[in-house]
Amino acid sequence: MIRTLPLGNVIDIQTNIQTEVLSSPLTTIFTEDEEMYKENIIDHYKHPHNHREITEATCVHREFNLLCGDEITLFLNTNKKFIVDASFTGTGCAISQASASLLTDALKGMTVEQARNLTQNDIIAFLGAIISPPRLKCALLPLKALHHALAQK
């Protein structure tokens, strides 16, 4: 994985070797995997999965990010042990909406206990991309809604 630093230097994160390059200091070189995941995030933003209300939801929770205005309402339909259906509504940046889309896909068929144990690392793995600290709150908004929704059970 290679990233261009502000002064036109490139650092390979795996080897921690820094070298000077002749490209623009604002150029970022993405690996093939990073490009694929970036496209996946945009696809989930433009065509979100499970973007709907569940009228017979057993758990519902709304979260709002005051800093950027992202808003997610998570709907869960659960039985005693499993999440039967999951969906969301809301608006916000590509990261928050893609995160909600990917999370609701993953939740279907998961046990309630497994869902309770999901962490920040799971969300980052679903997104498949490095999330900058300022955008982490956006990515984790659906997870926060999930944990609060399951606290109602």
Question: How large, in whole angstroms, is the Cα Rg?
Answer: 18 Å
Low-confidence stretches: 1-30
Instruction: Give a count of the beta strands, DSSP E runs of length 2 or more.
Output: 6
The arrangement of helices and strands along the chain is EEEHEEEHHHH
Largest sheet, order of strands side by side?
A: 1-2-3
> Mean of the pLDDT scores?
82
* Cα separation of the termini: 42 Å
Can you give the helix content as a percent range? 25-40%
Largest sheet: 3 strands, antiparallel
The structure class reads alpha+beta
Shape label: globular
Oligomeric organization of the protein chains: single chain
> How many individual helices?
5
Strand content: 15-25%
Write the layout of secondary structure elements.
Layout: E1 2-4, E2 9-12, E3 17-20, H1 32-46, E4 59-64, E5 71-78, E6 83-91, H2 94-107, H3 112-116, H4 120-127, H5 133-151
Antiparallel strand pairs: 1-2, 2-3, 4-5, 5-6
Helix pairs in contact: 1-2, 2-5
Concise overview:
It is built from 5 helices and 6 strands, in the order βββαβββαααα. The protein is an alpha+beta fold and 153 residues long.
Notes on the protein architecture:
The structure is a single chain. With 153 residues, this protein is α+β, with helices and mostly antiparallel strands. The protein is 40% helix and 22% strand. It is built from five helices and six strands; from the N terminus they run βββαβββαααα. It has helices spanning 32-46, 94-107, 112-116, 120-127, 133-151, and strands at 2-4, 9-12, 17-20, 59-64, 71-78, 83-91. A three-stranded antiparallel sheet has the order 1-2-3, with no helix packed on it. It has a three-stranded antiparallel sheet with strand order 4-5-6, with helices on one face.
